[in-house]
């Protein structure tokens, strides 16, 4: 049951609704600052209809751990922490467990709240934007946005799946509703 709840919570990150968002009604709206109280206990989210649609996960992510993400044009500069796939941290972003890291040759999945000072500016991402990941070894990897998907279904788990080549997948929410679409940005290594 915990696995089903984890997957449902994941829902390409109902994560953000578990600790609250500071957003308007969707991409393109102005954020409305609202105090957010952390729910207690954590609500149970709807289970997936077919848990067999899970992406195959790698047991241990390969590559070099990233400690920071920067998207200068959008004013994003946030610490990356290892996530649990359920909760999104405040004032940081999280790496989805079991997904890759830079130089690992697969999907790197980073998620965060659509709040001011966090991933809210991601709503303004454009193809061609540069994303920089600062790594724990003191180097950096550059990626270029190739796809912006403002309305991905909350249960589209394929975005978590390993990929045959390296890509960076960034995700935030579009509303407080657990089943609201997710905002996904995909970037590929810069040439």
Radius of gyration: 15 Å
Largest sheet: 8 strands, mixed, barrel
Oligomeric state of the chains in view: single chain
Structural class: mainly beta
The number of domains is 1
* CATH structural fold name: Sortase, Chain: A
Q: Give the strand order of the largest sheet, numbering strands 1, 2, ... along the chain.
A: 1-2-3-4-7-8-6-5
Order of helices and strands: HHEEEEEEEE
Mean pLDDT: 77
- Tell me what the CATH architecture is: Beta Barrel
> Residue share in helices?
under 10%
Give the overall silhouette. Answer: globular
Give the number of helices. 2
The number of E-state strands comes to 8
User: Would you state the CATH class?
Assistant: Mainly Beta
Low-confidence stretches are 1-59
Spatial gap, N to C terminus: 44 Å
Describe this structure in words.
With 191 residues, the protein is mainly β. It has one domain: Sortase (Sortase, Chain: A, Beta Barrel), CATH 2.40.260. It is 7% helix and 29% strand. It is built from 2 helices and 8 strands, in the order ααββββββββ. It has an 8-stranded mixed barrel with strand order 1-2-3-4-7-8-6-5. The chain is globular. The termini are far apart.
How would you briefly describe this protein structure?
By secondary structure, the chain is mostly beta strands. The chain has two helices and eight strands; from the N terminus they run ααββββββββ. Strand 1 and strand 2 form a beta hairpin.
Characteristics:
mainly beta, globular, single chain, disordered N terminus, Sortase, Chain: A
């Amino acid at each position: 049951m915990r696995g089903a709840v984890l997957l449902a919570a994941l829902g390409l990150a109902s994560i953000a609704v578990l600790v609250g968002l500071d957003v308007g009604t969707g991409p393109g709206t102005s954020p409305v600052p609202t105090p957010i109280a952390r729910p207690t206990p954590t609500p149970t989210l709807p289970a997936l209809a077919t848990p067999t649609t899970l992406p195959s996960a790698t047991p241990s992510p390969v590559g070099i751990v990233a400690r920071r993400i920067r998207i200068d044009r959008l004013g994003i500069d946030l610490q990356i922490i290892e996530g649990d796939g359920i909760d999104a941290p405040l004032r940081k972003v999280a790496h989805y467990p079991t997904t890759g890291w830079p130089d690992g040759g697969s999907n790197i999945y980073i998620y965060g709240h659509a709040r001011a000072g966090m991933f809210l500016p991601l709503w303004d991402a454009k193809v061609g934007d540069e994303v920089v990941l600062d790594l724990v070894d003191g180097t950096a990897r550059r990626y270029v946005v190739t796809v912006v998907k403002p309305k991905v279904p909350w249960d589209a788990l394929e975005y978590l799946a390993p990929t045959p080549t390296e890509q960076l997948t960034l995700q935030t929410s579009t509303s407080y509703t657990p089943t609201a679409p997710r905002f996904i940005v995909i970037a590929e290594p810069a040439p």
